[in-house]
Write a structure and sequence with these properties.
The chain is of the alpha/beta class and 386 residues long. The protein has 15 helices and 12 strands. The strands form 2 sheets. It has a 7-stranded mixed β-sheet with strand order 3-2-1-4-10-6-11, sandwiched between helices. Strands 5-12-7-8-9 form a 5-stranded mixed β-sheet, with no helix packed on it. The longest helix has 22 residues, at 94-115. The relative contact order is 0.10. Bound molecules: uridine-5'-diphosphate-glucuronic acid (UGA) and manganese (II) ion.
Length: 386
């Protein structure tokens, strides 16, 4: 069982939390031994429902479980715990309290599963990602990532995957600009346990030859089709594979009504792309190194759109016009600058950077395929060479 003390520092609260979580175990185990539990089918959703005091959805086991938990006083114990945390320090935000509660609930679930003699099915490398298995009441962020084969692809996707492990209620739509789905990417997606959809959509041949390519457009449009066929609520964000995301960004966009925007750090001379706000906090202009004749001169990483609006404006796609992808798409959504919801503390903070991984020339395979390495680990490692 994982110990809280090996995780994020909980300072003076740690000892108190331990006691309370142990108390909660006792209550649950007591109920278990009383034979009231048939089985725990889904430990993750079990703990989430218990914690949030949600009635179990569905029927059978689930609702019995919830009643048992309510009756056993677990909810009261947790309420007391949350109250204690709230009273203990003013630096504790609601989010922090939820995180602490989540950690404890996870331990309870682990313990119950252990007592039942079953192994938890979660082989994710990160503690935080157990959240991904949970049904939460948070709006889901559909994060659309176009990607294509190059030496930096797997390193970039690894970095982004590990960022997303820290984000609850995210669905990662990874769209390869390729004629086939890469097994390496499929296994990366599976390994991290982040809810995902793996698609492919190739840049049309005619654009491949041009110097300025509409990069990621076919991919993003395929993702928009997928969202329109599969989603009813939530928010869509276009997150390229080579950018750098502060995880606070995702909570900014989560409750987008129509279109939300925020500043993007640029690693160029301009340094910044951002909506300009007046003293009332209304978007009145845009700051960007390249305004051109764009109505919305924003960066791809600087806005999110609600699924509802994507569904309403069913003909909104990204145009195959380099540099005008964002503007073309936003214009199709039929919004005015006054409709824009500014985020990141009235656009005063930067939570995303439009970075670029240095582009490298593909490796020369001949060295690794030489006779000298036949039958060694280098043979195996070759599949990683791009
Ligand atoms: C910027 C914007 O952020 C892009 O959204 C926009 O498409 C692009 O400019 C443009 O106007 O051409 P930039 O950083 O210059 O992006 O481009 P990349 O990072 O190389 O490409 C954007 C995304 O598309 C990345 O996620 C990349 O993996 C993907 N991509 C790129 C493809 O899927 N296929 C390609 O041939 C190139
Ligand atoms: Mn990029």
């Amino acid at each position: 069982m994982k110990m809280i003390s090996s995780r994020a520092p909980l300072s003076k609260l740690t000892a108190g939390l331990f006691c309370i979580s142990f108390l909660v175990y006792l209550v649950i185990i007591n109920s278990l031994e009383g034979g009231q539990f048939g089985r725990v089918a889904d430990p993750a959703s079990f703990s989430s429902r218990m914690l949030m005091n949600h009635p179990a959805s569905g029927s059978g086991d689930g609702s019995n479980l919830h009643e048992t938990i309510s009756n056993s006083g677990v909810i009261t114990a947790i309420d007391n715990m949350v109250n204690q945390i709230g009273a203990a320090g003013s630096e504790l935000t609601e989010t922090r309290v939820k995180d602490i509660s989540n950690e404890i609930a996870k331990q309870i679930a682990d313990y119950v599963v252990q007592r039942l003699g079953k192994t938890a099915p979660n082989s994710n490398p990160c503690f935080a990602c157990w959240k991904h298995g949970n049904a939460t009441d948070l709006p889901v962020i559909y994060l659309v990532t176009p990607t294509y084969r190059r030496p930096e692809q797997i390193p970039d996707l690894t970095r982004l995957a590990q960022t997303l492990l820290n984000v609850p209620a995210v669905h990662w739509i990874v769209v390869e600009d390729s004629s086939s789905l890469s097994p390496v990417i499929a296994s990366l997606l599976k390994r991290y346990g982040i809810p995902h959809t793996h698609l492919k959509a190739q840049m049309p041949e005619k654009y491949k030859k041009s110097k300025l390519k509409p990069r990621g457009v076919a991919n993003r449009n395929a993702a928009l089709d997928w969202v329109r066929s599969n989603c009813k609520t939530g928010v869509v964000y276009f997150g390229d594979d080579d950018n750098t995301y502060d995880i606070r960004l995702f909570e900014e966009m989560r409750y987008t009504k129509k279109v939300s925007m925020w500043p993007v750090g640029l690693v160029t001379k301009v340094g910044l792309s951002s909506p300009v706000l007046n003293s009332q906090g209304v978007v009145v202009d845009f700051y960007d190194g390249w305004i051109a004749n764009r109505k919305f001169p924003v960066d791809m990483a600087g806005f999110a759109v609600s699924v509802q609006l994507v569904l309403e404006k069913s003909d909104a796609y990204m145009p195959y016009v380099p540099g005008h992808e964002e503007d073309g798409f936003l214009k199709k959504l039929d919004i005015s600058p006054a409709d824009i919801e500014p985020k990141a503390n009235r656009c005063t903070q930067i939570f995303v950077w439009h970075t670029q991984t240095k582009s490298n020339t593909p490796a020369n395979r001949t060295t690794a395929t030489g006779k000298r390495y036949k039958g060694t680990n280098i043979d195996t490692l070759q599949e990683w060479i791009v």
